[in-house]
Specification:
The chain contains eleven helices and nine strands. It is of the alpha/beta class and 310 residues long. Helix 4 links the parallel strand 4 and strand 5. The longest helix has 20 residues.
């Protein structure tokens, strides 16, 4: 139940905050999603003189990026949810990006704090005690992800490594998407965030990933005033999705088998055709380097559908 509560705070509670500011995907325009570097007194430009040597990361996504671009050896503390890569475990702490405590953060003597979506005003608080920060609204699409990676790389003095990572990710994503022929009839899907049927619409970052493959999101038809609607079992059954993607295999121990055992679900096309796909919760929720793995998982599911139809 503790793990479930943590994931719910990632997707659902913050999704409610997303009406104004989102941690998962709801910045309303590309201009709103520009990374923000805030100086707490020392220089905040991208020169070698400002290269941080003691970085605290309060965002699991950006922890992954920092290690992937070669800045991991300068990360002195990460938040409690930063469970990847394995090297991050050496600096894992009880710090929270959702309810940040300035005193606890400052105790690690950081010269840069990497924040996720700064909906708490943490950057301003850190600035009052002389600590620099870098924050970002959540991206709307892959292009914004790559911009974030490059910007963070410049901020921490690893610009070349960040640019190379962004280029590699773009090439891999383009190759994966291009490898699948377009379907004459768009397949429908349901993306499950937890076992209370929270989902995402196409307006979210997650939704934009499925859109790369021309898939149609059943949550778009829900009558809700949020892009993270709680659907009903009856609605999902009525929509009869071709594919079901489970992003709650860790938090809620949901499996394709348990989905098939839900009342009325055994006749769903996705269940009957064994097109219920178990995802890694973390990979499906973060927009770091492993978003390529998320995209590949969707591609593999579509390839399986294509083979079955042949």
């Amino acid at each position: 139940m503790k793990r479930f509560s943590t994931v719910r705070s990632t997707f659902v509670a913050l999704a409610l905050v997303a009406v104004g500011v989102s941690c998962s995907s709801d910045s309303s325009s590309s201009s709103d999603s520009a990374p923000i570097s805030t100086s707490g007194g020392s220089s905040s430009d991208d020169s070698e003189a400002s290269r941080p040597e003691r970085i605290v990361s309060l965002s699991p996504t950006h922890t992954e990026i920092l290690f992937a671009i070669g800045a991991g050896d300068r990360v002195v503390a990460v938040d409690a949810m930063s469970n990847h890569p394995p090297e991050a475990s050496a600096v894992l702490t009880a710090l929270s990006g959702f309810e940040p405590n300035v005193e606890s953060i400052v105790s690690y003597e950081p010269d840069l704090v990497v924040i996720g979506d700064d909906y708490t005003g943490l950057a301003e608080q850190l600035g009052t005690v002389g600590v620099d920060s870098w924050s970002n609204p959540a991206p709307q699409n892959i292009d914004e992800v790559l911009v974030q990676i490059v910007d963070l790389g410049q901020r921490v003095g690893n610009a070349d490594e960040a640019a190379a990572l962004a280029d590699d990710m773009r090439a891999s994503i383009d190759e994966i998407v291009a490898s699948l022929p377009s379907s004459p009839e768009p397949l429908t899907y349901y993306h499950e965030l937890d076992d209370n049927y929270y989902s995402v619409t196409s307006n979210t970052f997650i939704g934009s990933i499925y859109a790369l493959f021309g898939l149609r999101n059943i949550a778009d038809a829900a009558e809700a005033n949020t892009d993270y609607p709680q659907l009903s079992a009856e609605f999902i059954v009525s929509q009869n999705p071709d594919l079901i993607f489970l992003a709650d295999t860790k938090c809620c121990a949901v499996t394709p088998e348990s989905v098939g055992a839900r009342p009325g679900w055994s006749t769903l096309a996705a269940v009957a055709n064994e097109d219920v796909i178990a995802l890694d919760d973390d990979i499906a929720s973060r927009w770091g380097p492993r978003v390529v793995d998320f995209i590949r998982s969707i591609s593999e599911a579509l390839e399986a559908v294509e083979r079955a139809a042949a």
